[in-house]
Every structure is written in structure tokens, then in C-alpha cells.
Amino acid sequence: MTKLCRPPRFLAGGALLALVAVFSGCAESNFDLAEDSRVPVWFKLPDGTTRADVRLSATYYIVPYEHVALELSRKSGKVIAKATGHIVSTSGGITFPDLMTGDRRRMFQVITVGGTPELFEYQPAFVDGYRTMALQVCDEPEIRARVGVPMYEGSHAPH
After folding, report:
1. Residue 62 is assigned to a structural domain of this protein
2. Is pLDDT of 58 > 80?
């Protein structure tokens, strides 16, 4: 009589964990909106709330499909609103030389929520003493025009 070889239990558990990760998503990176950036057009701040009162977190997922989970919350951590964004530009975003100096490469990414696009620029930032990247809504008309993202009421070029 031949005994069937059964895989160890930890293999079955590992396979189940991998299956759950594939269907629930695998976070690739996370960025916060720069504190001096306006809130993207998809979010409206509650009455009596200012930009300084909120935080926007963007978590990029690559599995099961490429998307961005956006979460607007109060600094206390209470969630105000959530949205799922779709990345329009791929391959690391869109790069242009700096329009003012021409020497620094700038990286941009277009994200849409409900079919409405918004243009973001990745900018160097320091958080708790560590160098990282932050997202900044780009309101420069020349760049928005070059990538086909309209200006929205209330958006403006930085001064």
C-alpha cells in the first residue's frame, strides 16, 4: 500500500496567504500630499476645515491592477473621504526639464478619479529627518496644457 505524500501545513497556509494578497492588493508605495499643496479637485473640505487641518495619503497598488487609494483625513486620523484613482501616465510618470531653469528633471503623474484628471508632481521632502518624496498638485498652466489636464476653478499657478 502506497502512502500519498501530503505537503506540510505551512505550504497550504502560505499558498492561501499569497492568494489573499493577489486578490486584496499589494501596496507598492505610499506618498503624502505636500503640506503647501492644494487638495485635489476630487475632494471638498468640510465647512470650517482648512488645508492645514487635513492630510492626504496616496497608496499605490500594482496587484491585482494598477490603482491609487486616496484617503483624506483630519490630522487626528479621522477619515473624511476616500477615493480610488487610476494612473493615466505609466512608466514612472511624465518628465520635463524645469521650465524656469531647464536643468532639473521634474516628474509628473496624471491620476483620474471618476474620469476627472489631476496632475501631480513628485517633490523631494523630509519627514522625521528622512528624505522622501511628496505629491504636489501641479497648477502650472503650461505643464497642465502639455499633458492635457485642464485648469479647474480655484486652481492657480503658485506665486
Report:
1. yes
2. yes
